[in-house]
Amino acid sequence: MSFVEFCKKPSIKAGIVFPDILGQKISLSADSRLKEAEGLALAINIDVCYKEIAKIRNVKPATLVGQGVLDRLLNEVEEQKLELIIFDCSLTPIQQRNLEKKLQVKVIDRTALILEIFGERAQTKEGKLQVELAHLTYQRSRLVRSWTHLERQRGGAGFLGGPGETQIELDRRIIDDKILKIKQNLEKVKQTRSIQRSARKRIPYPSVAFVGYTNAGKSTLFNKLSDSDVFAKDLLFATLDPSMRKIKLPSGREVILSDTVGFISDLPHELIMAFRATLEEVLSADLVIHIRDAFSPNSKEQKADVLKVLESLGFIDFEKSAKYIEVLNKIDLFDEVSRKEFLAKQKVGLVGLSAISGEGCDRLLKLIDDKISVGFEVCEFELNVAEGKKIAWLHANSDVISCKANEDKMHFKVKISQENLSKFKFIK
User: Fold this and answer.
1) pLDDT band at 95, cuts 50/70/90?
2) In this structure, which of 4, 117, 154, 363 has its CB flanked by the most CB atoms within 10 Å?
3) What is the DSSP letter of 155?
4) What is the DSSP letter of 156?
5) What is the mean pLDDT of the chain?
6) Long-range contacts: 414-420, Cβ < 8 Å, 24+?
């Protein structure tokens, strides 16, 4: 039974193990990682009956953990009738196979768990393609001779054909063919997105992209600002497929707001690569808003994890960029005194707010307005009413502050970018 089929069972009783390896550097504490792993399991309705932080001095190549941990886990499996053990780390194919043999239950690692969540959440064709690519890339690495059928050979043709290919080679070739086909389909998606971005650039709507750790409140804030009903829930990876909405800023300028997939510590490499097409929306955005969970005890570590993933995608020194805003969400969870102290310490380019109550959202919109308006000039033009082409162009490519008609003349006061101002001069 595959893990996908396994997870379709009505209720799965599981245990979670976080291997705390001596000398291993982790961004979150062992307790936080265990809690996060539990949240991941709960996101796909897995019933977590047992949790353990396993202290490991020497990594066992065959099973990762020592015999003492294996004995404890075997005892829990038998007593609590566990059907699944989740290791919150990366397991080698051999380790996974050996652990399943010794514990006599299904064993998965962090990557497989996250892939399963992504598989359940993806709704659009693009999202499903990206998840399938990540799944296949992961499965390819799991093709070891764990079962005798993988050693069987298909005969070669004639006397000189050789022994033919083994089942493992055949399976690998089938997966490689599927991966190639999906990559070709995703390349088409990438081209479509590029065309859409080019089309949006012809329309004077700057783009604003949300990024942040999973469950930081991106979709809730997205819904608050855009008056939308994008799926938002207190779950890890509630959002996978990007959403876009047009919103109006205090100045009257309109921008395109986009909600993106959340990040997580030790995000599997397969997923980073698979979702690159989606995250390119961030690269092309005029402004990036990094949303953090202010109430989380691991807020700083989560920020570091997000910036690390962005750097791996080519976003270098993002935090120092002029197109970066940092938002500390969930200030409604603080008591009154702490909230006031927190808001009093706000720095330039940083906003404390509550996506639930809306407190601080006005300040964020004003900051977005100010950042987007950098490089714009306020200009005045007097045009003849017969100059319809110029009048229409100004309305489409600038922020019209005021427009007054006087007999056969029209007086415009607009906010316009240097680029569009240069273009306007050549319109006849």
Assistant:
1) very high
2) 117
3) P
4) P
5) 79
6) 414/378, 414/379, 414/380, 414/381, 415/251, 415/253, 415/373, 415/376, 415/377, 415/378, 415/379, 416/376, 416/377, 416/379, 417/375, 417/376, 417/377, 418/375, 418/376, 418/377, 420/204
Q: Strand, helix or coil at 394?
A: helix
What's the sign of the alpha-carbon dihedral 389, 392, 396, 399? positive
Residue 92: CB atoms within 10 Å: 15
Residues 69-90: what's their mean pLDDT?
94
- d(CA 416, CA 324) in angstroms, rounded, equals 22
Total residues found in the chain within this entry? 428
Residue 354 contacts residue 331 (beta carbons within 8 Å): yes
DSSP 263: B
- Could you tell me the pTM of the whole model? 0.70
Tokens encoding 199: 């089309």
- 299: phi then psi, degrees, rounded to nearest 5: -60, -45
Looking at the predicted structure, is the pLDDT value of residue 80 above 80?
yes
Query: Looking at 25-34, 200-209, 306-315, which range is the least confident one?
Result: 200-209
SS (H, E, C) 174-220: HHHHHHHHHHHHHHHHHHHHHHHHHHHHHCCCCEEEEEEECCCCHHH
CA dist 305 and 283 (Å) reads: 17
Q: Would you tell me how many other CB atoms lie within 10 Å of the CB of residue 325? A: 19
| Residue carrying structure tokens 């900051």 | 367
Lowest mean pLDDT among 92-106, 158-172, 282-296: 158-172
Q: Where are the alpha helices (DSSP H) in 261-402?
A: 269-274, 276-283, 299-312, 336-344, 361-372, 388-397
- Do residues 41 and 106 make contact, with C-beta atoms less than 8 angstroms apart? no
Question: What does the DSSP 8-state code read for residue 380?
Answer: E
Q: Residue 157 pLDDT more than 50?
A: no
**Cα separation of 420 and 203, whole Å?**
11
Per DSSP, helices labelled H in 218-274 are 218-226, 269-274
Q: How far is CA 374 from CA 84, 256, 368, 371, in A?
A: 54, 17, 10, 6
Highest averaged pLDDT of the listed ranges 172-176, 299-303, 345-349, 420-424: 299-303
Count how many Cα atoms sit within 13 Å of the Cα of residue 144 in the half-sphere of its side chain.
11
